[in-house]
């Protein structure tokens, strides 16, 4: 006696709903929740931590970051890690676990040059030389 096998019913596949990637020219709304995956954020924290630990001044920290094509700047009123000559904001330093309050306690108040026409934005500048 031959037994007939019924086909296993399959469910229709649900369409995958992935949000489209944001165009490069669109600015992030929340710098503390950037579109960075957790692995990238962990790598950034591991890379940044020794640079911050060795820094003795804001200028020194910015020079250490500049050797890797990065810098610190204020975007939207937050201290951010920026990349490239165009100043693309990667994320806030707060997102990376380094608060401005902690850095100010270690390095002193930063010298910031406000960017004209941009509220809450500025770039770190070298402090003026102290007279001898």
Write the layout of secondary structure elements.
Elements: H1 38-54, H2 58-66, E1 70-75, E2 78-83, E3 88-92, H3 100-107, E4 112-114, E5 122-124
Antiparallel strand pairs: 1-2, 1-5, 2-3, 4-5
Structural notes for this entry:
- The chain is built from three helices and five strands; from the N terminus they run H-H-E-E-E-H-E-E.
- With 132 residues, the protein is of the alpha+beta class.
- A hairpin with a 4-residue loop joins strand 2 and strand 3 (88-92).
- The chain starts with 37 loop residues before the first helix and ends in an 8-residue tail after the last strand.
Supply the number of helical segments: 3
Low-confidence stretches: 18-26, 128-132
Instruction: Output the radius of gyration.
Output: 23 Å
Class based on secondary structure composition and strand pairing: alpha+beta
Order of helices and strands: HHEEEHEE
Distance between the first and last residues' Cα: 106 Å
Q: Which percent band covers the strand fraction?
A: 15-25%
* Helix fraction bin: 25-40%
In terms of quaternary structure, what is this?
single chain
Question: Largest beta sheet: what is the strand line-up?
Answer: 3-2-1-5-4
Largest sheet: 5 strands, antiparallel
Shape: elongated
Average pLDDT level: 77
Number of strands: 5
């Amino acid at each position: 006696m031959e037994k007939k096998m019924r086909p296993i019913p399959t469910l229709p596949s649900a369409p995958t709903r992935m949000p489209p990637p944001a165009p490069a020219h669109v600015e992030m709304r929340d710098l503390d929740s950037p579109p960075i995956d957790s692995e990238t954020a962990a790598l950034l924290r591991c890379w940044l931590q020794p640079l911050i630990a060795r820094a003795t001044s804001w200028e020194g920290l910015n020079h250490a970051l500049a050797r890797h094509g990065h810098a610190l700047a204020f975007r939207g009123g937050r201290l951010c890690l920026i990349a490239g000559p165009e100043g693309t904001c990667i994320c806030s330093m707060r997102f990376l676990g380094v608060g401005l309050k902690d850095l100010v306690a270690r390095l002193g108040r930063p010298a910031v040059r406000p960017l004209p026409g941009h509220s809450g934005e500025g770039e770190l500048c070298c402090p003026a030389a102290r007279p001898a």
